[in-house]
Amino acid sequence: MTRLCALAIVGSLLLSVAACSERPQVVQYKQGTYAGKPDTPPYQNAPYNGDKAAWERAVATRAQSQNEYKRTN
Amino acid sequence: MARMKFLCDAERCIECNGCVTACKQEHEVPWGVNRRRVVTINDGVPGERSISVACMHCSDAPCMAVCPVDCFYRTAEGVVLHDKDLCIGCGYCFYACPFGAPQFPQTGAFGVRGKMDKCTFCAGGPEKDGSPEEFAKYGRNRLSEGKLPACAEMCSTKALLGGDGDVISDIYRNRVTMRAARGTKGGPPWGWDSAYGPPGAPAAPATPAPKAKS
After folding, report:
1. pTM of the predicted model over 0.90
2. What is the residue extent of each domain of chain B?
């Protein structure tokens, strides 16, 4: 009987701390600063591999395709 | 340094919804979420005007200011993005946005809101560029491929311009000059001042995410 009681007490003690191992689901953040995951600039990976100038040139060229005064003439 | 902006020419928009379709198709946006939509003012009345509206990636973005979990960041290119892993779907950004850009998928019963979804300027989000995870959460990352937003590139009348603010405002300025020469009037681009401030307003500094090691 005493063994059963001891087991029950130990069981209830274990149960009472069961949630203690739970990972915090609320991210710790500092007010006013971005708290999410890091990001890379658009020219970081392939096909530009960090060549910012090449990426800027590509985007600038691409933007001119929206200028119909240049497209039709 | 390119500062990415959108410009919608209300004199040209014919309400074809090509931009909406291009966006939906490019990013496989779920049913009920419209990152871009076309709004018509005085519909059916002579002189009606249509405007293609999405996130304008504001210089001083109100969504960034009100987000309780600070999940927004502005890239060095001026694109306002957010981390969906952090978003709690509270909807504050929706109330703050002057363009009604933030969208919330209805993920369950009782009107439960999912994580906010909005236009990313086809720049993906805080995941590895071009990865399946990035596509699933934020859509395609065209900017990292040296392309511009699909909506602007697909616009049949070139009413919607997207790209570096200096370049697209030059294109628009040229257009307005040609229009004035023909005696057609045209107002300032819709939403430009709301999003980017009056002429001469300084460019907002980037509040970037810490750079990931690639």
Report:
1. no
2. 4-196
